[in-house]
Design brief:
Shape: elongated
Number of strands: 9
Family: Belongs to the LHFP family.
Mean pLDDT: 84
Largest sheet: 5 strands, antiparallel
CATH topology: Butyryl-CoA Dehydrogenase, subunit A, domain 3
Number of helices: 7
Order of helices and strands: EHEHEEEHEEHHEHHE
InterPro entries: LHFPL
Protein name: LHPL2 protein
Transmembrane segments: 12-35, 96-120, 132-154, 183-203
Radius of gyration: 23 Å
Membrane topology: Multi-pass membrane protein
């Protein structure tokens, strides 16, 4: 018989697992990892514009995507075009960024799988006598290691030609040059920290769903068990 067990700790772990997976996925897909040095508008662009700011703009560069302003184009109030600069994996600007993409993709894949499974832990708490919470916590720890490896390798690619074109000639491995870090990089770091928090907190979720109070309510024949 399926017992639906909901506790504050298990629900918090489930929500955090989902949030972490989405945060890392959004950061990975974003082009806002590096914010390039300011580029002024050309005279022709300024003449063609029908209002709006004429301040210099900052192109952004991601692991495989970029956002930049296309000269001599007006896109109904959209100043920039965003999309992948690499049509395939081999065209990613740096070997270090290729490794970053692999490690981040592996970590995100695991996190998404855990987030999907976590939704069903209200009904199923163990498989083959193994606690799902403990297994998911272990997987989150492994995912966190993949994410750390990706984030460590990412700055090593700042010396590639693509990054130099955005950040100036002073850019090199682990040196930003004229660039600054975008929100996607910080989101990836924050998501990595939360991943390890989730891995640790999974043990608390397992304790909460296997507590004596839960067992007492199961023995009383209750199918829906909600505890603080």
């Amino acid at each position: 018989m399926c017992h639906v067990i909901v506790t504050c700790r298990s629900m918090l772990w489930t929500l955090l697992s989902i949030v972490v997976a989405f945060a890392e996925l959004i950061a990975f897909m974003s082009a806002d990892w590096l914010i390039g040095k300011a580029k002024p508008l050309s005279a022709e662009d300024m003449d063609n514009r029908t209002g709006g700011s004429q301040e210099p703009y900052h192109p952004t560069l991601g692991i495989y995507g970029r956002c930049t302003r296309i000269s001599h184009m007006q896109l109904s109030r959209r100043d920039t075009l965003c999309g992948p600069y690499a049509e395939n994996f081999n065209e990613i600007a740096s070997g270090f960024w290729q490794a970053t993409a692999i490690f981040l993709a592996m970590g995100i894949l695991i996190l998404c799988a855990v987030a999907f499974v976590s939704v069903f832990t209200m009904c199923v708490q163990s498989i083959m006598k193994k606690s799902i919470f403990n297994v998911c916590g272990l997987l989150q720890g492994i995912a966190g290691l993949f994410l750390i490896l990706g984030l460590i390798l990412y700055p090593a690619g700042w010396g590639c030609q693509k990054a130099i074109s955005y950040c100036g000639h002073y850019a090199s491995a682990y040196k930003l040059g004229d660039c600054s870090l975008g929100w996607a990089f910080y989101t990836a770091i924050g998501g990595t920290i939360l991943t390890f928090i989730c891995a640790v907190f999974s043990a608390q979720a397992e304790i909460a769903t296997s507590s004596d109070k839960v067992q007492e309510e199961i023995e009383e024949g209750k199918n829906l068990i909600c505890l603080l």
